[in-house]
Design brief:
Low-confidence stretches: none
Structural class: alpha/beta
Distance between the termini: 31 Å
Strand order of the largest sheet: 8-7-10-11-12-13-14
Largest sheet: 7 strands, mixed
Number of helices: 16
Number of strands: 14
Strand content: 15-25%
Radius of gyration: 23 Å
């Protein structure tokens, strides 16, 4: 796989803080985001640390070798057999473990009964909402795994494809990233047609394996229509009522409760991500519904025909996910006059405010974009991100080019 061929330093650099701890390391993220390959990255690092290969046990429940395992008893038999005669600590890796019934108690049993360091992956955000969370109270770490960032995308193009990274080539590669996103498995595909097909296949696997199968959905056609609606309306305020009316205009009838459930299922599968609304003056989350963004913006280009009508929203999507990668809690900001700030970013109790615009055609457009930032009552830093190279910094608002932002370490 393409993503196994590069080291994902954003995750590996933190490994030294986690390895050999009593905490179960839980890597979660959208299907095909590179979790399996990240596990192999970690295994390679452990070997470099001098860990004996025999002490490293990797089980993928999507592989042919272990596909028969569907309950915890079968898993326990394998693990206790493999660890019975080991000298020293065992390093246990379980890939897509949610497919095994009763896996939660098994993981807790290994933690208590075996001298081991445990790593697991899953493609559902509720992986730790049930029994495992109760059993492991305070004994697990959740690490969100995202598709390739633009920096990782460039790393792949440089290390694997041998492309020299110059200003011109980076600009060209940005256009590629803007259109097709960072799902690792599509990077080696040459043509636009093949990449679109691959993204559609990933979308279908998420829909059928992580939603339809898991939640026993009967009306698959309605789910598909709803999902495409969510993709086409990325970055817009979510309203189940407006979606219901849209479907009704196409002679499709359903309840708002059903649509809200579908929305939650897509959230749990990491296909979409909710960005809640945040009152800027009181610095508190608002009860009104927020916006939704795609975990990878490439699905928009692959599945929506009028894709280029949404370039600003796609740019917002790229910025939003990058902010999440960098560890920010991200909300949509609302001033008292209802003017909107695209993103309120909080980390370690400090805030930054981000406005995103594709292009600034004139001074009037610039003033309109920064006006909501200037109305924020506190004095934390405000940033305007666009696709333009010219520095539009003004009135204390710092301007950043999108490529400079994506290639930097932070805001």
């Amino acid at each position: 796989m393409a993503d196994r061929l590069i080291k994902r330093y954003a995750y590996l650099d933190k490994l030294k803080d986690y390895v050999n701890s009593d905490f179960v390391k839980v890597y979660v993220g959208i299907r095909r985001s590179g979790k399996t390959s990240l596990m192999h990255n970690i295994i390679d690092e452990l070997k470099l640390m001098g860990i004996n290969e025999d002490n490293i046990i990797f089980i993928s429940f999507e592989s042919r070798e272990y596909a028969y395992i569907d309950n915890s008893q079968q898993l326990d038999e394998i693990i206790f057999n493999k660890t019975a005669k080991l000298e020293g600590k065992a390093y246990l890796f379980f890939d897509e473990i949610q497919q095994v019934k009763g896996w939660e108690r098994s993981i807790n049993t290994y933690r208590v009964s075996i001298d081991c360091d445990i790593y697991i992956t899953g493609s559902n955000s509720k992986l730790l909402s049930g029994e495992l969370a109760t059993l492991l109270t305070g004994r697990y770490l959740t690490i969100n795994v995202y598709p390739f960032s633009f920096k990782e995308f460039l790393q792949y193009k440089n290390e694997i494809e041998g492309i020299e990274l110059t200003k011109d080539s980076i600009n060209r590669l940005y256009d590629d990233y803007f259109n097709f996103g960072g799902m690792p498995g599509i990077l080696s595909l040459g043509s636009e047609e093949f990449r679109k097909i691959a993204l559609k296949d990933i979308f279908n696997s998420i829909l059928f394996e992580d939603v339809v199968s898991r939640f026993k959905i009967n009306n698959v056609d309605l789910l598909q229509r709803f999902s495409r609606y969510m993709i086409s309306s990325t970055g817009e305020i979510f309203s189940s009522k407006s979606i219901k009316n849209y479907l009704k205009s196409n002679d499709i009838y359903t309840s708002q409760d059903t649509l809200l459930k579908y929305n939650e299922y897509l959230n749990q599968s990491f296909f979409i991500s909710k960005c809640k609304c945040f009152e800027l003056k009181g610095r508190k989350e608002m009860k009104i519904l927020g916006k939704y963004y795609l975990t990878d913006h490439g699905f928009h280009h692959a599945l929506i025909e009028d894709n280029m009508l949404k370039v600003t929203k796609i740019l917002e999507n790229i910025v939003y996910v990058e902010l999440l990668r960098r560890g920010y809690k991200v909300n949509v900001g609302r001033n008292r006059d209802n003017s909107e700030v695209d993103f309120v970013c909080e980390k370690s109790g400090r805030y930054k405010y981000v406005q995103v615009s594709y292009r600034l055609s004139n001074e009037k457009t610039l003033n309109r974009e920064i006006a909501p930032l200037l109305r924020i009552p506190d004095k934390y830093e405000s940033i305007l991100i666009t696709t333009e190279d010219h520095d539009f910094s003004k009135d204390g608002v710092r301007h950043l080019n999108i490529i400079d932002f994506l290639c930097g370490d932070d805001l």
